[in-house]
Amino acid sequence: MKAYYLDNEQQVSTTDLDRIGVLNWKLNPEDYEEDLKKIEQERNYGHRSIVNLSESTLPNFNEMMKKFFEEHLHEFEEIRFILDGEGYFDVREKDDKWIRIELVKGDLIVLPAGMYHRFTLTDTKYAKAMRLFVNTQKEPIWTPVNRGENSDSLECRKEYLKTQSVN
Ligand code: KMT
Ligand code: NI
């Protein structure tokens, strides 16, 4: 998984990503069941669903892409496993620098709750991804909270910043 600062393209290592709470694994996209089950058990993930992001498979493609690219956070982890195609997650460090993370087939990424981020496709405009969700909720809550007046006062944001204050 390649990552770099958007402003100067300086590389960001997976250890650095770990430090800001972004977890990642590389699984075999053709044979992942055993490894994925292990991660699900360890991290208490339940729900699985597949999204196919392309102009021909998503009726409201442009609208969805616009939405994904607005800076937002969630109250729960965002867990995505890229089964095919590719995409970028941009995540904000606590000092608000953008880090771009390039995801390709086989990449499994976890963004912590309360971290600001956005998603976009690459020039190929295609990604097929599995969405996973923590088992603490009956139903997955995908709702984004766009960055704005209220997002900074959310409990999940405060909790995330606490994890970053020791670095
Ligand atoms: C999101 O919430 O930003 C997404 O689901 C992105 C598309 S899945 C790789
Ligand atoms: Ni999101």
If helices are DSSP runs of H or I spanning 4 or more residues, what is the number of helices? 4
Number of domains: 1
Runs in which pLDDT lies below 50 for 5 or more consecutive residues are none
Mean pLDDT: 96
CATH topology term: Jelly Rolls
- What proportion of the residues is helical, as a percent range? 10-25%
Q: Any idea what the CATH superfamily is called? A: Jelly Rolls
Elements, N to C (H/E): EHEHEHEEEEEEEH
Question: Which labels suit this protein?
Answer:
alpha+beta, Jelly Rolls, 8-stranded antiparallel beta sheet, 21% helix, binds 4-(methylsulfanyl)-2-oxobutanoic acid, binds nickel (II) ion
